[in-house]
Design brief:
The structure holds two protein chains of two kinds.
Chain A: E1 2-15, E2 18-31, E3 35-39, H1 46-53, E4 61-66, E5 69-70, H2 76-86, E6 87-90, H3 102-112, H4 117-130, H5 146-159, E7 164-168, H6 176-193, E8 197-200, H7 204-209, E9 212-217, E10 220-226
Chain B: H1 2-10, H2 14-54, E1 57-60, H3 62-66, H4 79-85, E2 91-105, E3 110-118, H5 120-126, E4 133-138, E5 148-152, H6 153-159, E6 166-172, E7 178-189, H7 194-199, E8 200-204, H8 205-212, E9 221-226, H9 232-242, E10 247-250, H10 251-254, H11 256-294, H12 296-305, H13 309-345, E11 347-348, H14 353-358, E12 364-365, H15 371-397, H16 401-404
Classes of the chains: A alpha/beta, B alpha+beta.
């Protein structure tokens, strides 16, 4: 059964008097455990699609069923709670809270879920160890490299035990080594713990690792194919 | 955790927050200390007026209040009233007075005065005029030749007389005939109210009754001093119901300006502090708006990952409250220290003494503040923080997470 089912999704933006069709009748299904890349040129609708799936924006038409709930019909209040419990986010610019340590950043989302302190500390520790930052738990984001910050962001996204993780250009600000490290961690989590990743990217190295590649152009799906990931030499 | 994040957030831009905190602290220091000086001055004036001029309660023939004629005395004499006053526990002392307007004259000058015919021993338990006679200024109805009179220093200057000088008091007797007598100045008092000192002379009640041609129980006024001033209203009601033919007044009614000063002062202090806090509030709003603008992406991220609007609002409100409370506490501590210090040493405005005394104020000011004022002020500071957070929080809540997370 699909964890995400999208039907006839349409979204337009009005820039002055010009109407821009960001999404134009998208139909997609995502299964549990997928490792999917959404690619396409700038303005093709990748970010808009991720925003729609993440409940950060509402479509003009169409439905998005996540775990049987049509999130396009949820009130703003219910949608925030839905995001908290079902969706993990990894942003291009990491977006960690600078005044908190790596550990506290991961814990914060669990605090929002009202998880007891001892449990959230234990899970935050495990997650940071799983992304290779067990020795940097007390470091603030300013003391971490870009790659390390993005790994904290992945740990944070996993902390709430979401149904899937949406990553918008997660490697856009990373160097090659950090990109390789991050991809390795995401692949391992996907393979070993069946974490579902859906990410938009321009980065060919990331695309090559995806199991499924969806190509968007002018707000439409032009290609949706399986991919056999490249093996690291 | 949101409390801890909010606290840490205010120290992100340390210098900016410190500037706001210091502005609040100094604003409050100035405001509180000014309030303490005003309150201290007002309290001092009220305290001195009650203990020297009005006492807590006074009983009169109602007609005497309208027209201070010698014929409007308390019809029953003071004995029946004194008997009731002696049974009331919260009454500390009482003093019957024969009181009328007269002309005081010396060889050099003449001036209208209020003659207070008193029983010296009873009067000294009600007012503290007796204690305001300096060592070289005689004493409270002590020894000497002739009929003693205690006068104020301002009157002595006006009449150009001195201790042991003779003055003549001229007035109407009970039959409306002009009469008078010679009195020897046995004591010169000085309060902080030069107008009172110039106006009031104290003579023995029995001597003045003889000159008036009146019964020795004659009295126009009975002044009552309370053990517990908080009981004043209750005792006033009790006396009024017991003696319906008399008019029982408390010190606020006797001296309405003094009463208004006392009542208005508290309101004024809160108004004064409110204006200062309002001005400081705008500074906080500005700081919070800058903080929100700088953190657009982060706030978008928080909304995206599932921080609801209430928590987002709470976080911003707490930041604003912490900012104002930090400045507030520093300001309150500094102001308390300064108030306590100057309360101990006094602020001597001796160079303005004459002006102060003309309006009844002591030129040495002793700042004071009610502890409740600090509690209420802390609540006001928190309220200012909450108020100052509303607009910035509204701006933050209006952010669209999809746009905010990509904000550069």
């Amino acid at each position: 059964m699909s964890i995400i089912a999208i039907e006839n999704l349409e979204k337009s933006y009005h820039d002055s008097e010009i109407e821009v069709r960001a999404l134009n009748g998208i139909n997609l299904n995502f299964e549990e455990g997928e490792f999917t890349a959404i690619v396409g040129p700038s303005g093709s609708g990748k970010t808009t699609l991720l925003n729609m799936i993440g409940g950060l924006d509402k479509p003009d038409r169409g439905t998005i069923l996540i775990g049987g709930n049509d999130i396009t019909r949820l009130s703003s209040r219910k949608l925030i709670d839905f995001r908290l419990r079902n969706i993990g986010f990894v942003f291009q610019s990491y977006n960690l809270i600078p005044v908190l340590t790596a550990m506290e950043n991961v814990e914060f989302i669990m605090h929002l879920q009202k998880i007891p302190r001892a449990d959230r500390e234990k899970r935050a520790m495990e997650l940071l160890e799983s992304v290779g930052l067990g020795d940097r738990i007390h470091s603030r984001p300013s003391k971490l490299s870009g790659g390390q910050q993005q790994r904290v962001a992945v740990a944070r996204a996993l902390a709430s035990r979401p149904a899937f993780i949406l990553a918008d250009e997660p490697t856009a600000n990373l160097d090659s080594q950090s990109t390789r490290n991050l991809l390795g961690i995401m692949e391992r989590l996907n393979h070993e713990e069946q974490v579902t990743f859906i990410f938009s990217t321009h980065d060919q190295r990331v695309v090559e690792k995806a199991h499924r590649i969806i190509v968007l152009e002018d707000g439409k799906v032009v290609t949706d194919r399986e991919n056999i990931p490249a093996i690291e030499p | 955790m949101i409390w801890s994040v909010a606290w840490k957030n205010i120290w992100r831009n340390r210098m900016r927050s410190l500037v706001v905190v210091m502005a609040i602290a100094l604003g409050l220091l100035g405001g509180i200390f000014s309030s303490a000086v005003l309150k201290g001055t007002s309290d001092q004036r009220v305290r001195e007026a009650v203990s020297r001029e009005t006492s807590h309660l006074q009983l009169h023939n109602p007609k005497y209040i309208e027209d201070q004629e010698v014929i409007y005395f308390i019809g029953t004499g003071y004995k029946p009233i004194a008997a009731v006053l002696d049974t009331i526990r919260s009454v500390e002392a009482w003093s019957p007075r024969v009181k009328f307007i007269a002309m005081a004259g010396s060889a050099n000058a003449g001036i209208g005065v209020m003659v207070n015919g008193i029983d010296p021993e009873l009067e000294r338990q009600v007012t503290e005029i007796h204690s305001l006679i300096c060592d070289t200024c005689g004493g409270w109805f002590k020894g000497g030749r002739g009929v003693p009179v205690v006068v104020g220093q301002a009157l002595v200057k006006k009449l150009k007389v001195r201790l042991n000088s003779k003055i003549i008091l001229t007035f109407q007797d009970m039959q409306g005939n002009l009469t008078g007598g010679a009195f020897r100045i046995c004591g010169i008092y000085r309060t902080s109210n030069s107008v009172f000192d110039e106006m009031n002379v104290f003579v023995g009640r029995s001597e003045i009754c003889t000159l008036l041609g009146a019964d020795s129980l004659l009295c126009h006024e009975i002044a009552v001093r309370m053990k517990d001033p908080a009981e004043t209203a209750r005792v006033q009601n009790l006396l009024q119901s017991t003696f319906p033919d008399l008019k029982v007044q408390n010190w606020k009614e006797i001296d309405p300006i003094l009463g208004m000063l006392n009542d208005f002062m508290d309101l004024w202090l809160y108004l004064f502090m409110g204006i200062i806090l309002l001005a400081l509030g705008f500074g906080i709003v500005n700081t919070m708006l800058m903080a929100i603008l700088e953190r657009t992406r982060e706030l978008g991220m928080l909304a995206a990952i599932g921080m609801n609007k209430f928590r987002l609002f709470l976080m911003i409100m707490l930041e604003s409250v912490f900012l104002s409370l930090t400045g507030g506490i520093i300001g309150i501590i500094l102001a308390t220290g300064l108030t306590l210090y100057t309360r101990h040493t006094g602020i001597n405005l001796g160079s303005f003494a004459e002006g102060f005394e003309k309006i009844g104020y002591n030129p040495v000011l002793y700042p004071s503040l009610d502890p409740y004022f600090f509690i209420n002020l802390t609540i006001l500071v928190i309220f200012t923080g909450i108020l100052a957070s509303l607009y910035p929080a509204r701006q933050a809540l209006r952010l669209r997470p999809a746009d905010a997370v990509r904000n550069e």
